[in-house]
Design brief:
CATH topology: TIM Barrel
Distance between the termini: 11 Å
CATH superfamily: Aldolase class I
Oligomer: single chain
Number of domains: 1
Helix content: 25-40%
Bound molecules: D-xylitol-5-phosphate, zinc ion
């Protein structure tokens, strides 16, 4: 698959509705929603009031990326708020399985995420439990960071493990994605590319999304 998920974090919040409508008109496949709590990551983004607006105006499925401690407290509310998929960080929890079940029972897609300093092997026991794994290609917390090139090998490795097991699990990559590294990421086996600044800070975001899709 070659899916693009623009990250709302880099949008112009003074014109939120217009920005959502622009994504609606684009070739984007998802709208990526970064939720930060100021504890798991040293930054705070937004929560349910913004989810309400997104749910009302976005025709793209909402791909929620929780960068929070205790995701088990909130995952159901995010599904109720309109999330198509809910992802949380493996390193933020003791046992991801009950949280994956909570999300699935509510009827949303599941995603397990790791930061760049977490051993990619730790995802393997969960590959058959989730719809998607998200490999961070920057440290979670801020948009506009530089892509970490070692992510490419991790994508290839996880792709092999998924193929070996004949699983339908998707691979998402998030952080510093642009027109230069997108073809390499897709080639390595990524299915969903999150792009914040390379879309929203582009002169022509619709064209930027088109270009990322390749
Ligand atoms: C970082 C977020 C990303 C971020 C991506 O913590 O998870 O989704 O918005 O932004 P860019 O594409 O600018 O790196
Ligand atoms: Zn994200």
């Amino acid at each position: 698959m070659r899916y693009i998920a623009p990250s709302l974090l880099s949008a112009d919040f003074g014109h939120l509705k217009e920005q959502i409508e622009m994504i609606n008109r684009s070739e984007a496949d998802f709208l990526h929603v970064d939720v930060m709590d100021g504890v798991f990551v040293p930054n705070i983004s937004f929560g349910f009031p913004i989810m309400e607006v997104l749910h009302e105006y976005s025709i793209k499925p909402l791909d929620v990326h929780l960068m929070i401690t205790h995701p088990e407290r909130y995952v159901e509310r995010f599904v109720d708020a309109g999330a198509y998929s809910v992802g949380f960080h493996l390193e933020a929890v003791d046992d991801p399985l009950p949280i994956i079940s909570l999300i699935r029972q509510k009827g949303a897609h599941t995603c397990l995420t790791i930061n760049p300093d977490i051993d990619v092997h730790r995802l393997i026991p969960y590959l058959h439990e989730v719809d998607m794994v998200l490999l961070m290609s920057v440290f979670a917390g801020f948009g506009g960071q530089k892509f970490i090139p070692q992510t490419l090998e991790k994508v290839s490795f996880i792709k092999q493990e998924i193929v070996k097991r004949s699983l339908p699990t998707l691979i998402e990559v998030d952080g510093g994605v642009n027109a230069d590294n997108a073809p390499l990421l897709f080639q390595a086996g990524a299915d969903v590319l999150v792009a914040g600044s390379s879309v929203f800070k582009a002169h022509d975001p619709l064209q930027a999304i088109h270009q990322l899709k390749g």
